[in-house]
Amino acid sequence: xxxxxxxxxxxxxxxxxxxxxxxxxxxxxxxxxxxxxxxxxxxxxxxxxxxxxxxxxxxxxxxxxxxxxxxxxxxxxxxxxxxxxxxxxxxxxxxxxxxxxxxxxxxxxxxxxxxxxxxxxxxxxxxxxxxxxxxxxxxxxxxxxxxxxxxxxxxxxxxxxxxxxxxxxxxxxxxxxxxxxxxxxxxxxxxxxxxxxxxxxxxxxxxxxxxxxxxxxxxxxxxxxxxxxxxxxxxxxxxxxxxxxxxxxxxxxxxxxxxxxxxxxxxxxxxxxxxxxxxxxxxxxxxxxxxxxxxxxxxxxxxxxxxxxxxxxxxxxxxxxxxxxxxxxxxxxxxxxxxxxxxxxxxxxxxxxxxxxxxxxxxxxxxxxxxxxxxxxxxxxxxxxxxxxxxxxxxxxxxxxxxxxxxxxxxxxxxxxxxxxxxxxxxxxxxxxxxxxxxxxxxxxxxxxxxxxxxxxxxxxxxxxxxxxxxxxxxxxxxxxxxxxxxxxxxxxxxxxxxxxxxxxxxxxxxxxxxxxxxxxxxxxxxxxxxxxxxxxxxxxxxxxxxxxxxxxxxxxxxxxxxxxxxxxxxxxxxxxxxxxxxxxxxxxxxxxxxxxxxxxxxxxxxxxxxxxxxxxxxxxxxxxxxxxxxxxxxxxxxxxxxxxxxxxxxxxxxxxxxxxxx
Length: 663
Known about the structure:
The protein is α+β, with helices and mostly antiparallel strands. It has 3 domains: 2-246 and 409-470, FAD/NAD(P)-binding domain (3-Layer(bba) Sandwich), CATH 3.50.50; 249-406, Flavocytochrome C3, Chain A, domain 1; 494-629, Fumarate reductase/succinate dehydrogenase flavoprotein-like, C-terminal domain (Methane Monooxygenase Hydroxylase, Chain G, domain 1, Up-down Bundle). The protein is 34% helix and 19% strand. It is built from 18 helices and 22 strands. It has helices at 27-38, 79-87, 94-102, 104-114, 146-160, 231-236, 263-266, 292-301, 320-331, 356-364, 372-379, 381-389, 443-461, 470-493, 502-516, 523-538, 551-576, 644-652; strands at residues 2-8, 11-23, 44-48, 65-67, 139-141, 164-167, 169-177, 180-188, 199-209, 241-242, 247-253, 258-259, 270-274, 335-339, 399-408, 411-412, 425-427, 520-521, 586-594, 604-605, 615-621, 627-633. Strands 1, 2, 3, 6, 7, 8, 9 and 17 form an 8-stranded mixed sheet that branches. A 5-stranded antiparallel sheet has the order 12-11-15-14-13. The chain has a 4-stranded antiparallel sheet with strand order 16-10-21-22. It is globular and about 75 Å long.
């Protein structure tokens, strides 16, 4: 790595020149860095907002799942079988499904080798269990903090290899020369008070983009507060996005952001709502269910039917609870809590009302006694401890919850090497939209590891383009750098106004996304929201900040507000195509099926049009600075070349790494 400088308006800005810059420090980014050095590709650096920030190190569940090929037991499995499971979720390219399946075992064993504590039996078999959308028993877990363990062990490897890390740097722009990524601009937050505002440049032949999911887009979100996301930076430069419509939503606590899945539901907590002043407490679910047993069983089923799924609404299915919570919180403006201190239904509560599946589970767990918190103490004491460590005592207070954004199945488009249509830009991890409509639980962790390995292979072993000249890079850098410098001067020279604060600006688009772009969707409301979205983009310069310390926040708003328009445009395109309820969202239709008779005609929804699973929605920024969407047939699962001598020869001369794939 060489350090030089770039002069803008008489000021010298640091410029670091290297082969590959990796954005982000989650499990996917760290894995890519680890593999690159193992392949002998050492002129690299990581640029990250905060080491240990982001989703990988700060999320989990009662048993966080990692999905991979079955590697023990008698049940037969194969990469093609697993690829079918991924592909059958709909709107996923078959070649990506096959790659994620074929390389899942390789990356799983890599994690086990570096110390992630996946359990195995006395014969060395890494046993599995069945997860959602999984026909086998491919799932495994290292406990509630599987992804955090992955981060910690991969971070250890990065430190062992002495990989340079630029910590506390916010990436504020990606740089491209035509359709080729050439570097980025970052904000060194330790130098915000300097004349340069901390702006610095990275010239790189390859940019690995591992910025995670769009946590900063939603008002109600279970993404950790430190996970903002930066997909808008790539959208701004013309990167194609895929399946932005397909996100996952579910019940989560809001004071401390955590999925309330698994045991939290299986112990049968009491659901209550209050008015805005925390008065008028009532068990709001009771009035909607035909019997105590159906209500209690649905609460239990939310444990492993956690994501909202419109297929689980009919006949008083468990996802009806998500709709009713949404009505209480968004439509009525009330607060919803899970209360573990008392049993639901008061004196009418009885375990005997439970349907057999729920009753037998609690019986086998020796948990047919007491209150929800006592059952939770028996079945999963760590679940109580988790909240206690975050300032919430479930023994003494109810837990506020809402239906929250949790994961984006869509994201940036990448080819079979996880390379964008912007050449030399490699989106890895959640920001890469390889998934389809439905995906097996835990497949996101596998996808991040496989995708980052593929990117490392392509960078280290693939064909080499001529590096962009320093002169051409400076031409691109001066243009964008000058624009950002003027922004920094503008925002730090204005008088602060609470009515136009950057925080209020963010709250507006986050609220818009939660109300119109999450799990309840209506085309008329979405169309109105889109126009407001573009109007808000046009008012970007009207924001005000109180001091230079808030400069990173307002510059994050620049790419977040752009990204939320892209997501809304994708949703509109899907609804205009006639798309119905699928994945983790409900499409409202006054001529559709009734959610629940007692809710009336205002709550009717359109069923899924399954033929749309055969096509994929792509979204890209158009010439008029509005987003365009287009439909593309999904690619089938390919037949891979399997004659050993032929593959061996192509591997030895490096030809396999030169194979091009469609984005």
